[in-house]
Amino acid sequence: MKVLTDKFAESPLWPRILPFAVFLALGAGQALFGESGAYWFYLAKTIAGGWLVWLMRPFVKEMRWAFSWEAVVVGVLVLVMWIAVDPHYPHLGGEGEPWNPFLLYGEGAALGWFFVGVRTLGSTLVVPPLEEVFYRSFVYRFVAKADFETVPFKHFAWTPLIVTSLMFGFEHSQWLAGILCGLAYQWLVIRKNRIGDAMTAHAITNFLLALYVVWKPAWQFW
User: How do residues 20-61 score in pLDDT, each as one tens digit?
Assistant: First the structure.
């Protein structure tokens, strides 16, 4: 732990880039552990991500949750958009196998519900701070100016807006929805001059999407 915190203290780049990069790398490694292992690995990834968020908090002062009516509206509208556009464009990597633990453990199985809970918790509380700090605090401002900490969050410029939204979009297999989602979250940051509202909107979107996935069911969104 001290090695990481020492690294975070070296430069403002490290606490904004390294946790996200580690979390992304862990996500890419899920497929290496077989069908059952992938779900347990997702649990390990979520725990590791939560630990990284905790470690980076003292070094990323802007990583503070903020609640506003705009965050709620954007969070809900992004969910509606994500679902509505889904059938109308090809996804990266094709359709693939859905993330559905009930296919492995049986319909209504306790382990299935456990992993659904893990995914819901991770996507709601761990993913938003990691992604919003990387994209909205670092990438957007770094594209605007190398000395990114001098760039206010309310700063608007087309180049960083487009670059950040494209990067955010192509991180997801649902790339088109991801681009539109990135634009919406960035608008929130610019409007509120902080990233906390985008974190909240992101959490609302992901939590409601988890409920929708289980309710419909619509496992293709996972």
Answer: 999 999 988 777 777 888 899 999 999 999 999 999 999 999
The answer to whether position 194 is within a domain reads yes
Burial (Cβ within 10 Å: 0-12, 13-18, ≥19) of residue 33: middle
- Read off φ and ψ for residue 46, nearest 5 degrees: -65, -40
Q: pTM of the entire structure? A: 0.95
* Domain encompassing residue 178: 63-221
In a domain, 103, yes or no: yes
As a three-state string, the secondary structure of the chain is: CHHHHHHHHHCCCHHHHHHHHHHHHHHHCHHHHHHHHHHHHHHHHHHHHHHHHHHHHHHCCCCCCCCCHHHHHHHHHHHHHHHHHHHHCCCCCCCCCCCCHHHHHCCCCHHHHHHHHHHHHHHHHHHHHHHHHHHHHHHHHHHHCCCHHHCCCCCCCHHHHHHHHHHHHHCCCCHHHHHHHHHHHHHHHHHHCCCHHHHHHHHHHHHHHHHHHHHCCCHHHC
Q: Is residue 200 part of a domain?
A: yes
* Overall number of domains in the chain: 1
123 part of a folded domain? yes
87-134 pLDDT, tens digit per residue, is 999 999 866 678 999 999 999 999 999 999 999 999 999 999 999 999
